[in-house]
Amino acid sequence: MNYSYTKKIDTAYTSIDRSGRLGLVESMDINQDMITEFFGSIGSDNLVLRKQNNASWVYTRTKMQIVQLPFWNTKTIAKSYVSSKSPIRLDVDTLLCDENHHILFKAKTQMCAIDFVKRNLCKISDITFPSDLESETSAVSEQYSKLKTEFNEDDFVLEEKVYASDTDFSRHTNNTRYVKYLMNTFGIDFYDTKTITDFEIQFAKESTAGDVLRIYKKKSDGHQYDFMIKNGEEIVVKAELKYSDNPPVLPDYFDRR
After folding, report:
1. Are residues 66 and 165 in the same domain?
2. Both 53 and 164 in a single domain?
3. Domain that holds residue 197
4. 210 DSSP 8-state letter
């Protein structure tokens, strides 16, 4: 059986960046919220898993392709569904479209369930999850990147302390906070002269309140930046961001002053 979750979302002022459009961090917020609500709608969110299976869903990676992010006040439609299913992992696609069903962004997120006590992967058949759920075709045809870029101390650019307000229900740093930390490495010039086209992030380890994270950034060939976040000697996150040299197109009621 095919399961999916659809929701109408207005592009709020608090979700736009300097360009007047939905920001990357806020796009990742939508992706995360949609997946959470989708799993709630099928009776398999973390509230259920914690109570019934002593387990929790965790994200291992997200790949997002951006067509054109919506302006402030734009009405959009979001949809999430399972695009791949294995005994221990799922891929969940999230699409954000305008009212004419033109895709604004599409994302694919890999997930697995972790046993709280044993800290090992759970079989999906052993947790609360619809046994008749069938996967649908993914809107993201590209495979996840390997993210094998090597970094050294010359690539260190920023230090971020994790505060309690950065953590979520899991007591660990919220996944989208890492995206904000990465975007904090860019200055005004990048926001005003570049347009993000692709973003991918891989979650390797957890961090929590009080941790001090070190962010590394390297310009790759072409229009790409690679990132790494470390907590002490442990790699927490790796990511890549691709962009075009086209400056964001502003609506008539915005200016750059």
Report:
1. no
2. no
3. 146-248
4. T
Q: Strand order of the sheet with strand 55-66?
A: 4-10, 75-85, 90-98, 103-115, 55-66, 195-203, 234-244, 224-231, 212-219, 156-161
Beta strands in the chain (DSSP E): 4-10, 55-66, 75-85, 90-98, 103-115, 156-161, 195-203, 212-219, 224-231, 234-244
Q: Which of the listed residues 144, 168, 196 is the one where a domain comes to its end?
A: 144
Looking at residues 181-201, what average pLDDT do you find? 96
Query: At 251, is the pLDDT very low, low, confident or very high (cuts 50, 70, 90)?
Result: low
Q: What is d(CA 75, CA 144) in angstroms, rounded to the nearest whole number?
A: 30
Better pLDDT: 54 or 247: 54
Q: What's the rounded Cα separation, in Å, for the pair 237 and 147?
A: 10
CB 257 within 8 A of CB 23: no
Q: Which residue has the tokens 């976040």?
A: 229
Instruction: Select from 101, 96, 93, 92 the least CA-distant residue to 11.
Output: 96
107 shares its domain with 96: yes
Structural domain includes residue 255:
no
Residue 248, pLDDT score = 82
- What pLDDT does residue 256 have? 52
Number of structural domains (the chain) is 2
Question: Each residue of 142-176: pLDDT tens digit?
Answer: 999 999 999 999 999 999 999 999 999 888 999 99
Burial class of residue 254 in the structure, from the number of CB atoms within 10 Å of its CB (0-12 exposed, 13-18 middle, 19+ buried):
middle
Examine residue 214 and state whether it is found in any structural domain, yes or no. Answer: yes
Residue 257 belongs to a domain:
no
The pLDDT value recorded for residue 254 is 62
Looking at residue 39, its pLDDT comes to 98
| Virtual torsion, Cα 42, 47, 49, 52, nearest 10 deg | -110
* 221 within some domain: yes
